[in-house]
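Supplementary Note 2. Why include the ligand at all?

Several targets in our set were suspected to adopt different conformations when bound, so apo predictions alone were not considered sufficient. For every target with a known small-molecule partner we therefore ran a joint prediction. The input for nicotinamide-adenine-dinucleotide is given below.
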Amino acid sequence: MQSTPSTTEFDLIVVGAGAIGENVADRAAQGGLSVAIVESALVGGECSYWACMPSKALLRPGIAMRAAQAVDGARQAVNGTLDVPAVLRHRDEVASHWHDDKQVKWVDSAGITLIRGHARLTGTRTITVESDGTTTAYAARHAVALCTGSAALLPDIPGLAGAHPWTSKEATSTQQIPDRLAILGGGVVAAEMATAYATFGAEVTIIARGGLLTRNEPFAGELVGDALRELGATIRSGVETTDVRRLESGAVQLTFDDGTTLEADELLVATGRIPHTQDLGLASVGLDNGDWLPVDDTLRVVDGSGAPVGDGWLYAVGDVNHRVLLTHQGKYQARAAGDVIAARANGTAVDDVPWGAHVATADHEAVPQVVFTDPEVASVGLTAAEAEKAGYRTRVVDYDIAGVAGAYVHREDYVGKARMVVDEDRGVIVGVTFVGPDVAELIHAATIAVVGEVPISRLWHAVPSYPTISEIWLRLLETYGRP
Ligand SMILES: Cc1cc2nc3c(=O)[nH]c(=O)nc-3n(C[C@H](O)[C@H](O)[C@H](O)COP(=O)(O)OP(=O)(O)OC[C@H]3O[C@@H](n4cnc5c(N)ncnc54)[C@H](O)[C@@H]3O)c2cc1C
Ligand SMILES: NC(=O)c1ccc[n+]([C@@H]2O[C@H](COP(=O)([O-])OP(=O)(O)OC[C@H]3O[C@@H](n4cnc5c(N)ncnc54)[C@H](O)[C@@H]3O)[C@@H](O)[C@H]2O)c1
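The joint prediction is reproduced in token form.
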């Protein structure tokens, strides 16, 4: 292995060129800093190639087909079955055929220096990058931002690793749909991939020991579970997997704690994530390899006492800080981080009061998420249970979305439910959940209401158009009653 003695300096070094690292780098470069970004795989990260984009590309054709089949008149025009090879080709296109040329072009155009290779911290503001057997040292004048993301967690189940299960990477990039797919986990990846693969005709079994989508309002898991069963999927809850093995036939066999077994052609493990910090040189700056990186609201890594590491030169943004594992929320953090790194470097004012320009306040109470199942689950802020636990004096308002004229026009068999959680002391909404076909686009209005703390009395003046599904807002307000 060779070592080059000279050290190249930048104002900011970003490690990891996923969506989040790209945004940190961009904002800091726009703030006048010289910025380098280091990437060991594809520029664009998980979201573009193995997560958000390919998974949605796999889901959308089935959802569009069922939507058309639900409307008389259109139904007659859609009488074939899903063209699975065409869906996979569509997914390949959306994933840019796993080439990052377009994103590299963007990095260049943004004035950011791209360094290919595996980065490791070596001390305060210094890193090395290993590429093709060569190790090069770099230094940052002001800050290093770790945006290294996360990877699938494999639970400690005997035989699991040796059975070479799929993770979300294989599930989103496969060219082969297995006849039988077992899915371990009941979270977002499990629910979305079960929807996609059941639509493709695979025999899907979800092993969701604690239930489906349990971080959402309880009716989300119930409605999505009903729809998955209608697609032919089986949901097994309340069982623990005790053993996994790959049989000589090539099939995977799972054994459960009730003595039953299940055989499938592939097993997708969707049981959460671990941080990409095992081989990042964290020990060189007094942190533990393999840990998530907790941060303050300006995204500086903090130690056990909550104080920034060193003089506050080290940032962690996106999945790796474990605040919210979502692209849009990571990019929101990235805008704050890139701007505050530039402000601190330039000696200009830092706006770090809650809801200021340089903090990620929304991470705490106003995180939107869409689960792209069929029906979709769109939520923001706190569930009723979370709001109660947080000490709010709440009132929970539920409404059946099918009762809205816009939903009936959308499809006669519309099944959906909405919930609004109101903080009675302030007269504002702290959480909203919609479950139903095509509710994804409704959630931003709810996000504005939660972030803006719009009083319920004022929301009565936000009139939804007739006949749209947005009239659910009026129905929720009427059910709540005019203050
Ligand atoms: C199947 C699936 C579907 C998802 N769907 C959605 C969705 O619809 N909407 C949504 O908002 N979120 C979704 N997510 C979550 C979303 O993918 C993540 O929140 C997001 O990708 C995190 O971005 P990141 O930049 O923090 O990390 P990543 O995208 O993982 O990027 C980190 C980058 O750092 C690089 N790297 C790591 N270590 C080093 C090192 N030492 N040196 C150099 N480079 C390094 C990696 O190669 C990688 O490119 C989904 C996740 C999964 C698994
Ligand atoms: N549309 C979206 O926004 C979207 C889509 C996919 C993923 N994501 C993000 O990716 C992240 C990872 O998703 P995920 O689904 O892997 O994690 P998750 O945390 O959402 O769900 C993990 C699930 O696995 C279960 N589990 C854990 N250990 C288990 C075991 N031994 N046996 C059976 N079940 C077990 C948990 O109870 C939980 O239901 C999430 O945080 C999510 O935010 C987002």
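The chain has a mean pLDDT of 97. Residues 15-21, 38-41, 45-47, 51-52, 55-56, 118-119, 147-149, 168, 172, 189, 276, 280, 318-320, 325-328, 330 surround flavin-adenine dinucleotide (ligand 1) (CB under 6 Å). Comparable summaries for the other entries are listed in the accompanying table.
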